[in-house]
Hints:
This protein is of the alpha+beta class. The chain has three domains: 3-90, CATH 2.40.50.100; 154-222, E3-binding domain (Dihydrolipoamide Transferase, Irregular), CATH 4.10.320.10; 242-444, 2-Layer Sandwich (Chloramphenicol Acetyltransferase). The chain has seven helices and 19 strands. It has helices at 154-163, 181-193, 224-239, 252-265, 274-288, 334-349, 423-438, and strands at 3-8, 18-23, 30-31, 36-41, 46-50, 55-60, 67-68, 73-79, 242-250, 294-296, 303-305, 311-313, 315-317, 320-322, 325-326, 363-367, 386-390, 394-400, 403-417. Strands 9, 12, 15, 16, 17, 18 and 19 form a seven-stranded mixed beta sheet that branches. A four-stranded antiparallel beta sheet has the order 1-8-6-3, with no helix packed on it. Strands 5-4-2-7 form a four-stranded antiparallel beta sheet, with no helix packed on it. A hairpin with a 6-residue loop joins strand 10 (294-296) and strand 11 (303-305). Helix 1 (154-163) runs parallel beside helix 2 (181-193), helix 5 packs across helix 6 (334-349) and helix 5 crosses helix 7. The longest helix has 16 residues, at 224-239. The chain is elongated and about 95 Å long. The protein starts with a strand and ends in a 7-residue tail after the last helix. 40% of the residues are buried. Bound molecules: oxidized coenzyme A. Oxidized coenzyme A (CAO) binds next to helix 5, strand 13, helix 6 and strand 16. The site of oxidized coenzyme A has 22 residues, from helix 5, strand 13, helix 6 and strand 16.
Amino acid sequence: MAETKQISVPDIGNFKDVNVIEVLVKAGDAVKAEDALVTLETDKAAMDVPSPFAGMVKEVKMKVGDKVSQGSVILLLESGDTASAPAAAATAPTPDAAPAQKSAAPAETSAAPAMVDAPPAAAAPAPTAEPAPAAPPAVAAPAASPSSGVHASPAIRRFAHELGADLSQVKGGGAKGRVTKNDVQNFIKAALAQPRGTGGLRVAEMPIVDFAQFGAVEIRPLSRIRKLSGANLHRNWVSIPHVTQFEEADITEMEVFRKQLNEEYAAQGIKITPLAFLLKAVVEALQQFPDFNASLDASGENLVLKKYFHIGVAVDTPDGLVVPVLRDVGCKGIVQLAKELGETSARARDKKLTAADMQGGCFTISSLGGIGGTAFTPIINAPEVAILGVSRSGMKPVHRDGAFAPRLMLPLSLSYDHRVIDGASAARFIVYLAQTLADIRRLAL
Ligand code: CAO
């Protein structure tokens, strides 16, 4: 007779408050014994929790992002024959749903292989649109892969990681589109079979130095965010031909207005920094120069022009750089943008951003204006094609109408992908942006 049982998280060792990174079934699904139900991720590993028996899912009680421990209810499962279900807990979590199960314990991952395909905490643009014509085709840095939506066991994720395969690009040939070992092997074979040009990047090996021989040292592991963003930054730096164009915007009038607004909105707790104006002005420039609001498609032969204007903002956090995305910036006013900026950067620093908060960006602004410096060369946040760096404004003598006048000048640095954007277009873009900031009445047009 059909009986509904509550399935809960089994013994997962000493781990508590573990992240749910994937829910693999939904109400109405028929599952077999040992089918994976959810994927949990600890600091060190990801693990699938398999079903203890076959049945029909009545109700799922967990969602992605939940924090769970042993005994947390996963779902209600109806079975016609529960003889094989001695306990209501799911069977031991496994790093491998494949036949050769080595251990029921979560995979220890000194290099954190099972985690690399978890939702990236740092900026992680969708690799489907990633331009990589000179790199081995379709084999991307796995740390950058938003492949948490891919159905694959931790062992397959680890396997894909070891081979450098981006799981989000592997077509799953298993049940319910699950990615199998065979799928990963075929994917790698296909990638290797493609022409590689002149042999890729060849650089001398980095020397391995024992620094302790020169004096005292301390070893501090990189944070997870730093590792993920580091992999993305490295890939973008070596695979995109960057050029950086500089300009200064006269923001003397803008600053008067900004200070006035700040006084008006201080009571509401809204701080209006130059960045709110920059967000608005950048969208104005993107509308004039649509090639900057675009990405190369996977073939590298077409430009995907976006009709929406979602802008990423680089935020410095104690754990490293993250790039949350503000949506539909063109439809919002300066005050609203300042408010969102404040809330978003606070959430970033409190580690409360989700993977979704960091996706969908068209163009990024990296502002170091609050800190200082005169200019820098920001790295493009692929698959975007340009990024604006903003440095600290300062008073400068500007020659106007036959005399020098003190003006507040804001340094801008625009890095662009030279495969997509010509130098002349970049110069036009940044001049237009500076003119808009110099006369912000243009934003109302
Ligand atoms: N010139 C002069 N002053 C500036 C300025 C500029 N370009 N930009 C900001 N300021 C001022 C602000 O008005 C504010 O002044 P008050 O404290 O007197 O009000 C102060 O500097 C601090 O601003 P802020 O940094 O808190 O706010 P923001 O909106 O400018 O920036 C954020 C928000 C989240 C982008 C920023 O805090 C941050 O994290 N920046 C670092 C980004 C980064 O690391 N980029 C490097 C990436 S490597 O490619």
